[in-house]
Amino acid sequence: MSAPEAAPTGEHLRAAGERPALVARTRGPVHVIGAGLLGASVGLGLRERGVDVTLEDLSPTSVALAADYGAGRVRTAEDESPVLVVIATPPDVTADVVERALRTYPDAVVTDVASVKLAPFAELKRRGIDLAKYVGSHPMAGRERGGAIMARADLFVGRPWVICRDGETPADALALVEAVALDLGGVLMEMTPEEHDRSVGLVSHLPQVVSSLLAARLVPASEQAIGLAGGGLRDTTRVASSDPELWVQILGANSAPVVELLDAFSADVAAFADALRDPARTGARRRIADLLSAGNNGVSRIPGKHGSSERFTQITVLIDDSPGQLAKLLTELGELGINMEDLRLEHSPGAQIGFAEIAVLPEVAERAVADLVERGWRTL
């Protein structure tokens, strides 16, 4: 899986000061197969940059909806052959669709954006398919809900876009896929399929399983208990609303790395529970503290805004749960010259009040609180 020396990577392109212009590189349309969230978002982003995009989907309703939202036009038999095919189908059919696309459009470069890379690649190799014009890729972007209705042209901006390619991939094929990723705002990364699947198992697939299992514990809970829920529960269960059918496919295709991670996670849970059964036992409190501290160390490694390691201070502002209050707060933050790095809203059950949790740089936090209080805002 090593890269040939002649193939320019995204880092090389950026270092040379070049901005890959997809339109200048192509003499035909980009064809997107799969008109769901990712496919429609690719279409919207490329259309916004003046690229001719054609769409295809097994569902006539899905492809028509994506076209209505502006992601492209439904492909017809009269359309010229595409120069690039982007496959955005569920992972259990990715290999089949890649094979069909390579045969149907022999002059086109084919890429897919499936969230697992090794299984489709291995299956295509097993079938003896010539993969010279296939470049697997995966933008680390998505939303809890799918479909064209949730698609966004800026979905990939600032997000890692992993390129997985064979060592014999031609430079022009690689450059075209990289150009698409860069034009859509992605940050290029290169991995082997094995490295990719192990990595997403840790940062995406394991969190999905843990979040879903935690949320499942809420099903038998009383309404009184649920009424106490706050930001911590919302944070840890946010992705639990994802599509179960899609995740059965993803997890099935990446089962080995996820099982390994779940086994290690289960061991940590068992060790934590064992220490907590008798916290007065010698060494138990230290074991609990060590596991919690490891969590501190781990979360500190998660990239912050724009992939940086910058950490922010949270300021919580109480706002009346009425129209115009949030807009007023944001306006006043701008007037005070306070840059808001992130925002989260939470409503207080049974009360006409909300909480705006604002992330700011640590060095401006104290001034921000003082200025907001001076203007009449209540902070926590």
TrEMBL record:
Presence of keyword Signal: no
Catalysed reactions, semicolon-separated: prephenate + NAD(+) = 3-(4-hydroxyphenyl)pyruvate + CO2 + NADH
SUPFAM superfamilies registered for this protein in UniProt: 6-phosphogluconate dehydrogenase C-terminal domain-like, ACT-like, NAD(P)-binding Rossmann-fold domains
EC number: 1.3.1.12
Region listing for Disordered, in residue ranges: 1-20
Domain Prephenate/arogenate dehydrogenase: 28-310
Domain of life: Bacteria
Pathway listed: Amino-acid biosynthesis; L-tyrosine biosynthesis; (4-hydroxyphenyl)pyruvate from prephenate (NAD(+) route): step 1/1
Keywords: Amino-acid biosynthesis, Aromatic amino acid biosynthesis, NAD, Oxidoreductase, Tyrosine biosynthesis
Residue stretches making up the ACT domain: 314-380
PROSITE patterns, sorted: ACT (PS51671), PDH_ADH (PS51176)
One Pfam family of this chain: PDH_C
EC category name: oxidoreductase
NCBIfam families the record matches: PRK06545.2-3 (NF005111), PRK06545.2-4 (NF005112)
Family of this protein: Belongs to the prephenate/arogenate dehydrogenase family.
Name of the protein this chain belongs to: Prephenate dehydrogenase
Organism this protein belongs to: Leucobacter alluvii
